[in-house]
Inverse folding.
């Protein structure tokens, strides 16, 4: 049974020592992962998209990230004007220790990166088929500049509980909360 902080906070105020309490008083934890918060990872609105003049597969975009407009070169085929996307601004460090820097790509300035879920560290198992080969975009508007972890509903932690036949109450998050 996997429980995340986002699930659990609907039922209880989560104590700081949740891992210790669970191991000592409830059941054994098989794995406990804290989710790293990535500074400079925000929601953006693609204002414009046009073909890169020096490439047949790159796009030039301008993206509103809340208070500033960034020029970003994007290689995803599915990026388009009007989309609400996840943007890694200069200074963000993505999984794999990949740091986002201001750069010139084929002669055009790029001040960030429009991200796919794979680039954010999501497993292929949970990425919808429509977004496996390109960037992820939301089907609803979100205020530009919003923290990406809030918009993606990322939890502070995820723990997998060891289940035993005598603990049927641990087959749900509500049962765990009780």
């Amino acid at each position: 049974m996997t429980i995340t902080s986002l699930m659990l906070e609907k039922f209880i105020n989560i104590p700081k020592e949740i891992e210790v309490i669970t191991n000592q008083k409830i059941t054994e934890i098989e794995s406990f992962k804290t989710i790293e918060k990535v500074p400079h990872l925000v929601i953006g609105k693609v204002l414009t998209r046009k073909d890169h003049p020096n490439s047949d597969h790159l796009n030039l975009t301008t993206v509103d990230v809340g208070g500033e407009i960034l020029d970003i070169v994007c290689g995803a085929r599915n990026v388009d004007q009007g989309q609400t996307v996840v943007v890694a601004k200069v200074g963000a460090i993505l999984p794999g220790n990949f740091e986002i820097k201001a750069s010139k790509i084929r002669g055009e300035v790029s001040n960030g990166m429009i991200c796919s879920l794979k680039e954010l560290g999501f497993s292929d198992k949970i990425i919808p088929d429509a977004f496996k080969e390109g960037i992820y975009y939301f089907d609803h508007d979100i205020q530009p500049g919003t923290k990406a972890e809030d918009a993606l509903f990322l939890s502070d932690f995820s723990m997998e509980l060891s289940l035993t036949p005598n603990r049927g109450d641990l087959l749900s998050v509500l049962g765990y909360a009780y």
